[in-house]
Amino acid sequence: MNREGDEKQAPWSISDLAHELDVSTRTIRYYEEVGLIFPARTERGIRYYSRQDRARLRLIMRGKRFGFSLEQIREMIELFGEDRSGRAQLLRAIDYGNQKLAEIDDKIRELSLLREDILAYKLGFEQKLLEEHGEGNR
């Protein structure tokens, strides 16, 4: 039974969620192993996921896409459990977001300097080719 796009029905199987979120079932199991999600199990041990599990997985995937560590994601999830209004979670997410933006700005500066260095070398090599061999860049 494929539940892709079906947000009203629960529970979901691990393969349903893996397909919907475009991750492997192993990734979902790993998130369970590290204590980020807690799926229920049938008597036969088959995992099944509630709406809350699905929402938590989506939050984890979004956090990973934004570059947050699993520990940072765990902290934000736990903050929501402590403060159901979500205020503490939002404040922490803003703080982590500011940290990520600073990291991105640093990387942009580094890449810009690297680009300038490579361009300077390239121009120097082209000049040397012209001077020593009478030919320009082809």
Shape category: elongated
Distance between the termini: 59 Å
Output mean pLDDT. 89
Question: What's the alpha carbon Rg, rounded to whole Å?
Answer: 24 Å
Q: Walk across the major sheet and give the strand order.
A: 1-2
Q: What is the second-level CATH architecture of the domain at 7-65?
A: Orthogonal Bundle
Oligomeric status = single chain
Organism: Brevibacillus parabrevis
InterPro entries: DNA-bd_dom_put_sf, MerR-type_HTH_dom, MerR_fam
Domain HTH merR-type: 11-79
Keywords: DNA-binding, Repressor, Transcription, Transcription regulation
Question: What would you note in describing this structure?
Answer:
There is one protein chain. By secondary structure, the chain is mostly helical. It has a domain at 7-65: Multidrug-efflux Transporter Regulator, Chain: A, Domain 2, CATH 1.10.1660.10. Helix content is 67%, strand content 3%. The chain has helices at 14-21, 25-33, 51-65, 70-82, 87-133, and strands at residues 40-41, 47-48. A two-stranded antiparallel sheet has the order 1-2. It is elongated. The relative contact order is 0.07.
Key terms for this structure?
two-stranded antiparallel sheet; transcription; disordered N terminus; Multidrug-efflux Transporter Regulator, Chain: A, Domain 2; 2 strands; single chain; mainly alpha; DNA-bd_dom_put_sf; 5 helices; 138 residues; elongated
Strand and helix layout:
Layout: H1 14-21, H2 25-33, E1 40-41, E2 47-48, H3 51-65, H4 70-82, H5 87-133
Antiparallel strand pairs: 1-2
